[in-house]
Amino acid sequence: MALPTAAELEAARARLLPDVLPGPADPPLRLLFCGINPGLVSAATGHHFARPGNRFWPVLHEAGFTPRLLLPAEQGELPRWGMGITNMAARPTARADELTDAELVEGGRILHDLVERYVPLWLAVVGMGAYRTAFGDRAAIVGAQEPTIGPTRIWVLPNPSGLNAHYPKQRLVEEFARLRAAAL
């Protein structure tokens, strides 16, 4: 896949990235991954976690969620395995730190409504800071959270962005694998 041009990336700031959610023929949603917000490459291509260097897809596979490594363009395969993807905030940015706290809080409210509509067994928020802001829980740590949304349990994962130097890939795989053991 060729990377979008600078003009295409700038135009992507005005695009919305649709959620990946089950259709009528898919099994019920067991696990909904929630990213922070679409990056510009994701918005330009229409595929979640599409920026080169983002470790989401390799980590998802290595943690045992998918039988093979998926490309971002294959995100539509997730619902057949009971998984989906959404974002905390809808606005595409080059970096997540361009979002305001108000956008994350509003995104948390919208996410709450989405979870109530689809009722996954687990919501996996990929990004500690976004979770803490959106849910008003400054003490949250990686792993299962006490609050729920109805019957849906919440798990916080580290951000798989290549910009997150605090978590090398192997640690990300371990954290995702802990979620897999609990959720699937």
Automatic annotation (TrEMBL):
Q: DNA damage among the record's keywords?
A: yes
Keyword Iron attributed? no
Which branch of life, at top level? Answer: Bacteria
**Record-linked InterPro entries:** MUG/TDG, Uracil-DNA_glycosylase-like, Uracil-DNA_glycosylase-like_sf
SUPFAM superfamilies assigned to the protein according to its UniProt record, in alphabetical order: Uracil-DNA glycosylase-like
Q: Which residues form the Uracil-DNA glycosylase-like domain?
A: 26-171
An example Pfam family from this entry, by short name, is UDG
Swiss-Prot/TrEMBL keywords: DNA damage, DNA repair, Hydrolase
Q: Which NCBIfam families match?
A: PRK10201.1 (NF007570)
Stated name of the protein: G/U mismatch-specific DNA glycosylase
Which source organism does the UniProt entry give? Pseudonocardia xishanensis
